[in-house]
Each structure stands twice: as C-alpha cells, then as structure tokens.
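Example record

One chain of 248 residues, shown exactly as stored in the release files.
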Amino acid sequence: MSFKNKVVIVTGASSGIGAAAAKMFSDEGARVVMVGRNEKKISAVAARCNSPLVILADVSKDDDARQIINETVKKFGQIDVLVNNVGVTINNGGLLADDMMSSYDAVMSINLRSCVHLTSLAAPYLIKTKGNIVNISSNAGIIAPIGPGLAAYYVSKAGMNHFTVCAAAELGVHGVRVNTVSPGPVRTDFFENAKSPIDFNDIRPMTLLNRVSEPEEMADLILYLASDKARGITGSNYLNDNGMTIKH
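Predicted structure tokens for this chain:
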C-alpha cells in the first residue's frame, strides 16, 4: 500500500497504536503529521519517521484543534487522511463517586468531542482530496464494562462508533469515507497512563485467543482502511480483539 505524497494526520501519535500507525504511514511514503502532548515520547517516535510534522497539542482544546489543521494545511496544502486515535480513561469509582461528572466530562472531551471537532475542521480539505477518516474506538463500545468506574470510557467509545456512521453518511456523498477500528487489548501504555491497577496479564484470559495484540496489528488495519484497497468501505467498524467480545 503506497501513500506517497499523501498527507496523514495521526492524533495520539506519542505511543502505542498512534505511534505504530505514524511509523507505518511514513514507511509507505506519506507526509505524516504527528499530534501529541508528550514532547519526549513524540520526539522519539518522530525520529523513526521520515521528516514528519510534529505538533504538540491537546486535541480537547478548540484552539489546539484548529492549530493542528491550520499548521498541516500551511505546510502541506492538503489533508488526505485523518486518524482520530487519541483516547484516555479515568477510573472514578463509578456512578456513586463524588467526582463522577468531572471525570466523565474529561473523558468525553478527549475521546469523543475532539474527534467530532477535528473531523468537522478537516472535512472541507478531505472533500477536496476525496480523502478518508479512520476513527480508533474499542471493543469497549459494544460490551459491558469489565469493572466498575469505567462507564465514561465505554460510553465515549460507543459514541465514537455511532459518530463514524453519522459522519460516513454525511460525507459519503462528497466522496469521503469514514471507518472505525475497534481494538481489544493492545500492548500499549494505556493502563500505565490511566494509573490503573489492571495489567495485560489480567486481560489476556478474557480473550478467546488468550493473547494481547501488538500496536502494529492495529496499524496494519488502519492503513488498509485508509488505502485505495478499501475504496468501497465506509461506515464500517472493524473489530480486532482476539475474540474478547464474543467470549465476553
């Protein structure tokens, strides 16, 4: 799959799935725009890519979201692919916790609102290039939580799934495709960033195949959906979770 001279924005590119996708797009000739908040981490990933544009930004802030689009267009003049990958979870103790709404708002702002906002900002440029969007959701969007205090994360991913369908329906008439990748457990720093007591040894037995995926497995699927090989696919949700959903 060649993405030569294609301009690809990847949010959450500092680590995990986003880092793997940025590297893979770069290897395939894309002009990659890497977005993240952790300068040390994103610089390390950028060093493995071919002259990427690195933007330090918080996608949940409206001015930062506009900065991402404006800097991309200023440097490259176009946008061909948007990968909405950024995502967090905050375990707040559940619906009975005193700070339920503050953590809910924080998770929804990053996981869902930022995706909607960036999509809206990028859409006019994607229409010009007949580009596409790949949203990174989770199997959490279609299963019950594996523990208490995770409702905000699960709701945000369910929302992303349906937003993908809505965006695909609206933008399809303009030649823009929108799809979702829903990973199960992937070996990233997700739990570490969330300061969660859960680790991958806890999650592995929950999968039918008794394994945890590597970020590159998700990147492979992202690149496929962003490529011309998937030119007839839009509004779809690709589940890649080692059978966790059907076992659950």
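Notes: Residues 100-129 form the longest helix (30 residues).
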